[in-house]
Amino acid sequence: MYGSSSPISPHTSLVSRKEIPRYWHILSLIFAIHEINRNPRLLPNITLGYNIFENYYDTRMTYDAVVDLLSIGQVNVPNYNCGRQKNLLAVLEGAESDISIQISTMFGIYKIPQVSYAFVSHFLNDKTQSPFFYRMVPKEEPQYLGIVKLLLHFKWMWIALFAVYNDSGERFIRTLTPLLTKSGICIGFFQSLPEVNSATFSFQVPRFRIERKINVFVYYAENHSFADGILVIQALDNYFKDIEGKVWITTALWDITVELTYNRASYHHIHGFFSFLVQTKKRTNYNDVQLFLFAMKPFVEKAFHCFDSKHVSSVKGWTRCREKENLETLPQEVLEKAFSLDSYRIYNAVQAVAHALNAAYSSRSKHMVMVAGDKLKHQRLQPWQMHYFLRNWPFYNVSMDGIYLDQNGDLAADFDIVNWVVFPNTSVVRVKFGSLERQGSPELKVSIDQDAIVWPKWLNQNLPHSRCTESCRPGYAKVILEGMPVCCYDCTACTEGTISTLEDANQCNRCPNDQHANRERDQCVPKVLTFLVLEELLGISLASVALFLSITTGLVLGILIKYMETPVVRANNRDLSYILLVSLLLSFLSSFLFIGRPQKVTCLLRQTAFSIIFTVAVSSVLAKTITVVVAFMATKPGNRMRRWLGKSLANSIVISCSSIQIIICIIWLGSFSPFPDSDMHSQPEHIILQCNEGSVTMFYSALGYMGFLAVICFMVAFLARKLPGAFNEAKLITFSMLVFCSVWVSFVPTYLSTKGKYMVAVQIFSILASSAGLLGCIFIPKCYIIVLRPHLNTKEHLMIKDGI
Predict the structure, then answer these.
(1) Which single residue of 428, 460, 500, 555 could bond 505 by disulfide (Cβ 3.0 to 4.6 Å)?
(2) Please, which pLDDT band fits residue 310 given cuts at 50, 70 and 90?
(3) Distance of CA 510 to the CA centre of its chain
(4) Which residues face 405 on adjacent strands?
(5) With contact defined as beta carbons under 8 Å apart, do 69 and 93 qualify?
(6) Cα torsion at 463, 467, 469, 472 (round to 10°)?
(7) Could you say which DSSP state residue 462 is in?
(8) HSE-CB for 266 with a 13 A CA cutoff
(9) CA-based torsion, 522, 504, 506, 148: positive or negative
(10) What 3-state class would DSSP assign to 276?
């Protein structure tokens, strides 16, 4: 580009390429130049000129074009000045990395600004190597994160990676690979694409076979390599055997509409193209399009079969162009090409240079020189004087929404995620289905509207699948296979008490203590509080039995009191019988302490009350047994045991034996008192509300002491079982203690093997069964004689040796 203070017509040198039309790119530059030259507030009295060169992406032709720009005259001789001079102020280029580096090297010698609107190598960002290079496009790196987010959204974890073999391709691989690995995405296949000979379109085809499970290609190429690289991939492995039905994701920030439209590749077998575009404003107002159409006048005449001239041509079918009607009926495809992303980028690059040039001229307005005819004229602006303004002038953005400076002062952008739809007639439509936005936030915000994607009809709206193995559904976790990529794994079900709520979970997580895993092991559900409730069948049954036995005991006690003066009641110390019956009554009632939600008071009384009451009962039975033995021995002549007969012996036995148990319980309550507790681990689906005994040692000490008394009582009664009939109560005591000991011996293992409310139920059953054994074996025969056989309730009958 160059500027001149006189209104001259721009000189254009244009070389066209038939294979891939660049007409729209040229029109974008011409449109920008015309708009600037028509703007009286921008570069007043200065006409912006330009030269256009096509290098065919060839380094030799690029060298020739550069030398031509740096030379004066017909012969290209750099640094030779024959009195004429080109006013070259800046170079705009959209070449790829290698050629951009070549241009930078040559123009850097002359400090000529190089303004690039292409996404090129980061090598050119190094100001020590390329101090006069200016990038007018945002950075690529956010796209790499966008690719990862896109793959994760569709759960494409097994991909193939293609990149053109050059500096940019290597940087792409080097940057993207760690992001993929960190997100658990595996590169099942990677291939560097060979360079394509632009003249003969020939290349060496590498031989490989892509794994069938890979249905997603992540593809990276620079401008001219994009479609060529696709042709290389399509030529691989014999007529598309391994690439049919693939999804292509690319970082092509240039507009690929033209590439897809005019390229020789066939796309009907591809699921779809996804890429990223800088968010743009559509410059479609009437005046802008009118100016653009002025630049593309030859195309308009051909497209609408009309002439812009006032004189209608004699050519049949051609008329005079009606500009407004043409604008309204201009095909959408034409507008898409006219205002494509390539057009925006070229337009913005020209505007940026023009505004920098305007700022440079404005700063020199005070430095005027006198020329012939007493006229003032600007001093000629040198290219090196442009650098200050290009470095410090804000990026001129009139057509792009998402361009801004990031925290490092670099150009950044918000992107649209687009789906390119290629129809059989080679027409191309781009459909936006998502966005990448970071403006105003340090994190990348990704939004995807999956329903907006246009999938091929033969796909039947089924999402393409690209995984090494099927995903582990919730309730399972991944098991990495040795020697295999992390994307190839087995699935194992979560163990008891653990869940996984997501697909492809790396591990199962344990549920909180108050929750448990459901049957599918994919969510935690609250545990159910459980304890022996009076309202349930088990609680009602035990309570009913306890109540019945309590009433029965009360009736027996009433009968004995009523017939207290009869021989059966008076035999073997009726006071001990009363104590035993009261103890049995209390033991039956104590079972109600074990039914219901555990409370602090009930937990304190449960075991201690039961232990003391039962000790009193067993002590009473022991006292009865010893009384029988002493009474029998006292009947022998000269035996001194007679003095032990009486209430004092029985009372001493009951009090002394019970006192020891009371002391044990006091120590238990004072040091390790029971308290309400919850057991969250014994039963997976329940929280067991229970009484913590405080000290297992004290619990079994009290229980053991009671058992010790029962064993002594059984042994004494067993030895006295064959005493004369008058003392036959020893037989009843022997049998009752046999029942008592059997119950409590079986109680210990049963108690230890059960959990929750059933443990409590076992203890209640043991209390009721053992108490009922004492009641039935000792007192039911007495009541039978008193109530039903009163004729046997006589002193004479009791003295009969073989009586009851």
Answers:
(1) 500
(2) low
(3) 16
(4) 411
(5) no
(6) -60
(7) P
(8) 9
(9) negative
(10) strand
